[in-house]
Task: structure prediction
Amino acid sequence: MRLIIATRNKGKLREIKHILGGLNLSIISLNQLKKPIRIKEDGHTFLENALKKALPVSRMYPLDLTVGEDSGLEVECLNGAPGILSKRYCGRGATDLKNNSKLLKKLGGLKGKERKACFRCVLSLVKAGKLLKAFEGRLKGVISKEMKGKGGFGYDPVFYLPSYKKTVAQLSLSQKNKISHRARAFKKLHNYLAKLV
Ligand code: ITT
Result:
């Protein structure tokens, strides 16, 4: 059986394949599908967007299982921003570097606990246009004062984990995949799928 991950983000896919390895499923992403699919990510919550990613794919490929994944960074002192807009924090043409620089600038002058943040990941598992189950994972940390590390993607260089004394970008893929918001959500999915397939 195939499990389609409704994403075009290569960083996410690399992590997901690593976490779901061992399941008797062939894992593919939107980039490997033949029919073009338009996804409109205009929901107001992570769950709405996770569904908006999975449903159109699942309607086109009703025999496969599809997962929609929406994730992002919530910063406490910014009332949860950038949140569902994490990818586009700098507007059109945003890059990870520009987004991270904007965030560091916004938090300039704040110290310690004032820099608390949380990564969130919400998944929707869908088949033939119907939601089977949703899962969520979180990772708490603080925004560092400068970017550090070359691993991961997105906000990993500025997301500092006090217990590791490292940013997420300074962790190996295996280390990130033991603790990340995505790992936590996908492990719940893994356990669910292990019973299903
Ligand atoms: P798809 O919609 O194709 O899956 P995307 O990158 O647009 O890919 P999202 O809409 O879910 O994905 O936006 C997630 C953004 O949140 C991502 O681009 C990063 O900026 C940030 N993010 C999510 N998970 C992250 C992680 O593990 N490490 C760092 N940043 C992360």
